Amino acid sequence: MIVVTAGALAETFVIQGGKAAGKILTPASPSPEIKFAADELVAHLQKMTGARLEVAADPGGAVPAGSIRLVVAPNASRITQRDGGEQSFVIDQKGTGVSIEGQSDLAVLYGAYEYLSDLGVRWFAPGDLGTHLPARASIALDGQHKEVHPGFRTRYLWISGNADWHHDARTPEALANGVRDSVVWRVRNRLQVSYRPHAKVKTPEFPLSLISMYDSFGHNVQIVLKSTKASIEKEPERYPLVTKADGTKQRSVKGQICFTNRKNIDAGVAWALDYFDKNPDMLTASFSLQDTGGVCECDECTKANGGVNPAEHCDRLVWGFMNEVSRRIAEKRPDRGIAFFSSYGATEGPPAGTKAEGHIVGVTCHVDHNNHDLDDASDPVIQLYLQEIAALKATGAEALAYDYMSYPASLQPLALMRNVQTYHRLGFAGYTCEVMACSPQHVMVNWVQAQLAWNPNRDPRQLLEEYCQTYFGAAGADVLAVVDAIEASARKIPKVTLSGYGGSQEMLTDEVIAVCRQRFEQAAGKVTGIHAERLTQFRETIELYSRLAQAYRALYVALDDRTETRQKEAVAAFDTAQAYWNEHDLARFISPQVVPGWIERVKKTAVAIPVINPAPQKALVDADDATLRRELFAMDKVPDKLDNLVFLPKEWKFRIDLHRQGEAEGWMQPGFDDARWTSLGYGFFDDQGFQRYEGTFWYRTAFDAPALPKAERVFMRIGALDDDGRIYVNGRLAHVRVHLHGSDWMRSFEFDVTDFIKPGERNVVAICGRNDYGKGGLWKPVAIYTR
What we know:
Layout: E1 2-6, E2 13-16, E3 19-20, E4 23-26, H1 32-49, E5 54-57, E6 68-72, E7 89-92, E8 98-102, H2 105-118, E9 122-123, E10 131-132, E11 139-140, E12 144-148, E13 154-159, H3 163-166, H4 172-188, H5 223-226, E14 241-243, E15 249-251, H6 262-278, E16 284-286, H7 299-304, H8 315-332, E17 337-343, E18 360-366, H9 380-394, E19 398-404, H10 415-425, E20 430-435, H11 440-454, H12 460-471, H13 476-490, H14 501-507, H15 510-524, H16 529-561, H17 564-583, H18 594-607, H19 625-632, E21 643-647, E22 651-656, E23 678-681, E24 695-704, E25 714-718, E26 721-722, E27 724-729, E28 732-737, E29 749-752, E30 762-771, E31 777-778, E32 782-786
Parallel strand pairs: 4-5, 4-6, 6-8, 13-20, 16-17, 17-18, 18-19, 19-20
Antiparallel strand pairs: 1-12, 2-3, 2-11, 7-8, 7-12, 9-10, 14-15, 21-32, 22-23, 22-24, 24-30, 25-29, 25-32, 26-31, 27-28, 27-30
């Protein structure tokens, strides 16, 4: 929130005609944050005007004419505020000087950046190249009183993985500088940071403390075991009891904890209280589940989960544990609480009627469909996510958003920018985004996210336009046209989940690449100097990703065609992308992980196209009738009786649908010729010769249905489909399967086909599937039966 009141404008200058009129005043013994604020003001104002303001000890009293005072408010609380109040500040220019008064040392630093931002300074990207400094001969007081409160308490865009994945690591100095520039960029844009030295990084010299987080929410519920040095040999009952692949159960050191074990609950409370003693600024301690499965299925946990197997749905169990830990913490520390991923993987949100006890922060993770806006009423996955948010808010808990950027294999759709405002409108206390790739295009999105996290009342489109017009100068309109062309293409994709190579090649079609190249060619002659250098980096980024997209596309064509010519074209395409990377030294500003993680690794598939191996998954090899039924009813109870059960063939015809033309061309029709399609068994297509394919795919089969009782309904059940699917029976759409829940890829489902099946005749079943992440395909049996 920003409140501005104007006063009588006095002709008072901080800098006039390139000469300093006053000084920068700090306490006699300034904190690192205030000292850094003074240094930043000196450096930026000098670069803008040529004048260097002296830093001096504050004499007190009225602000001397033309001076800038940096001071913590005398009534400032030393305790972290749940509303983020300790990050608030006032900039007063109604008198003879400028007073930047913060509710904390960090708030004073934020106030200095707000003041510079009001003067037109922008930190569009890390480093000097990314800083915009308007030239000014004079800087006068604006006569206003400005009160600023951050839009979110938590504003955290963190770069995941190791530092050398995303910064130039060819020398220790380059890596340290890259890390430093990235961290300082975040501070300048009033984001929070949590920098800790890494073994691979020569620790950069930072002039201030770089731990400004107040909420902790990482995957760490096993801390309740580690904090007491538990061992599975001595205390197996504290570890999760999980079902193994063969159906037996055993305690495991992997996965989660036993959530009903009293020692675990006691240990969790004790660890959190100790954590707050050691970290007095933190509002929450993290109890998020580990980033794996393995939820405890013991009798007590199942009972606490309302009798539902926790391996299938564990929210009641998890919320029971979190509520008890939070309530007991509140007894000793009523001002502190816990945070955990309430919508992620195994957890989907609180059961109806749940009330949060103590202080709980539920972190909602938006993993899927991140090419669509959160207000997209037509997207069922997003609508479910909004329902999970509403359920969380209904408990009385606070909410913190967690978004994800794309992998280094792909550019970033722009929906993440617009979603920041939606989270604020929904009453979220914090906004977080895991940045999994660094490039000028990703940083552009990050900059808009940062501005909206600080002030959600701004317009995302206007911010994007400001970025293009200011950062690229006369080339801005062309860059914006490129960005818009890519975004329009991204929004046509059915869904983007983290966006790997499949999402990249669908986003950057040959037509979009042609538009980008044309606009960049037009832009190149319009700018010189720093604008030209920025344009070159952005242009080279889009060109690299375009060549990667073409390489992925060539690989998919080779997987479909399986000729030596297509295979060689795919290898050559990856070599072209690698050569472009080397020629333009792109490790300077694009995640170096692109080369080993995406170019070299994916190229291996092109070099040795996998042999077609139509083998079923291991569980189905020589499977007896009981095993087939269990696989058919995956994650569901097998009925004691199944009438007229008929399994469909174990092998289906398969084809990738690179350009999503299958439905338009009638690939589902009974008479369609699939003779040249590949035969695959039940199992992931990646394991049968189509490694790394992400996108739309098709399965087809034909079977003879027996004569079926007319009085009964006929159902078809699919044991598992990874991920989404449109199922056609005899050319007609019989069912649409949307992957809504995290475990749906391994969950069986049924649907009524009474009106589609032809008893006693030949029937054709076709599945138009979609896989956007990891392995995919029809990997468990399909059957029909009556009821």
